[in-house]
Amino acid sequence: MSKQHFNKAYGANAPENYERFFVPAIGKPLAEDLVNLAELRPGEKVLDIACGTGIITRLAFEKVSPGGSVAGLDVNPGMLAVARSITPDTSIDWYEASAEAMPLPDNAFDVVLCQMGLQFVEDKLVALQEMRRVLSPGGRLMLNVPGPKAEIFAVMANAMEQHINAQAAGFVNHVFSLHDAKEIQRLMSEAGFDEIDIQASTKTLHLPMPKDFLWQYVYSTPLSAVVLEADEKSRIALEKDVVYKWQKFAENGAMRFEQRMVTASGRKA
Fold first, then answer.
1. What is the rounded distance in angstroms from the CA atom of residue 174 to the CA atom of residue 188?
2. Higher pLDDT residue, 256 or 3?
3. Mean pLDDT in the chain?
4. Which long-range contacts (CB under 8 A, 24 or more apart) does 158-161 make?
5. pLDDT for 215-229, tens place per residue?
6. How many C-beta atoms lie closer than 10 Å to residue 11's C-beta?
C-alpha cells in the first residue's frame, strides 16, 4: 500500500500505467465501438481529439490505410510521449495542444473523433467549434462520453470522499459529468453541426479483480497525485472499503459491470 510497494508492483508513471491497464480494460473496448460507428474508409484524413496514449488514433490508422492519414491531439505531454513510443514506424502526427485552440488549418480533416474527452474540456462549445472548423465540408464528428456513472464508480467516488478528500471524489465524478442528451444536442447545435444524432447504449466491461483494478485505476489517472498525498491509514481504509463493496461485481476471476455510454455524431455542411 505504500509508495514503495506500489512502485515495486507497477514501476511506471501515470501515462504508462494508463496504456498498460486502463486501455485494455476500458479504453480499447470503447474505442473499437466508436471507430466502428465512424465507418472510416481508406484514404480519409482523421483527427483524434484528447487522444491520450493513442488507442483511437491507432485503430483509425488501420482503417484509413492505405492512402489516409491520422493525427492525435492532447494537452498532456506524458500521454503523447507514450503514444509516440508505441507508433515509431507510422506516419501518425501528434500535437500537444488544447481542443479549444488547435494549431491546425481549416477544412483539414474528413473525420474528427473524440473518446471520453469532451467532459474534461473547460469550454466545450469552443472546443466543438474548433472541431467543426478543422473539418472539411461534409466532414463528420463522432464522440462518446460515459454516464451517469455505474455503481462500481459510485462506490469509488464515495470512498474517495470519505477516506481521501473531495478533490479525489471530484475527479471520479467529473469523468461522468457530461451525458445528458439534450445538453450535448444543444452544444453541438450551437457549434454549427448539422445532422446531429445522439444515441445511448450500455456497454459490458470486464475488469481485473477489485484490489488490482482499484490501484490500477488510481495510478493510471490524476488520482495518483492526490492519493499519494494521503497517509497510509487512509489508503488502507480506502482499499478495504472499495474492495469489500466491489465483491458483488466479481465472478470467475474478474469484475463485470455495465456502463451507459452516450455517442454523438454530426456533420459540417
1. 20
2. 256
3. 94
4. 159/238, 159/241, 159/242, 159/245, 160/223, 160/238
5. 999 999 999 989 989
6. 9
Fold of 3-267: Rossmann fold (3.40.50)
Angle at 248 between CA 244 and CA 250, to 5 degrees: 95
Which is it for strands 135-146 and 254-267: parallel, antiparallel or unpaired? antiparallel
Instruction: Please name the residues in contact with 269: beta carbons below 8 A apart, sequence gap of 6 or more.
Output: 137, 138, 194
Q: Is 206 exposed, middle or buried (0-12, 13-18, 19+ CB in 10 A)?
A: middle
Task: Give the residue carrying C-alpha cell 484490489.
Answer: 211
Rounded Cα gap, residues 112 and 38, in angstroms: 9
Contact 256, 205 (CB under 8 A): yes
- Would you call 131 helix, strand, or coil by DSSP? helix
| Closest-CA residue to 51 (of 25, 10, 12, 86) | 86
Residues 93-107 pLDDT 10s: 999 999 999 999 999
Residue 258 corresponds to which cell in the numbers above?
Answer: 455495465
Max intra-chain CA distance, the chain = 57
Encode pLDDT of 45-96 as tens digits: 999 999 999 999 999 999 999 999 999 999 999 999 999 999 988 899 999 9
SS3 97: coil
Phi, psi of 80 (to 5 degrees): -65, -35
User: Nearest CA to 9 among 218, 188, 190?
Assistant: 218
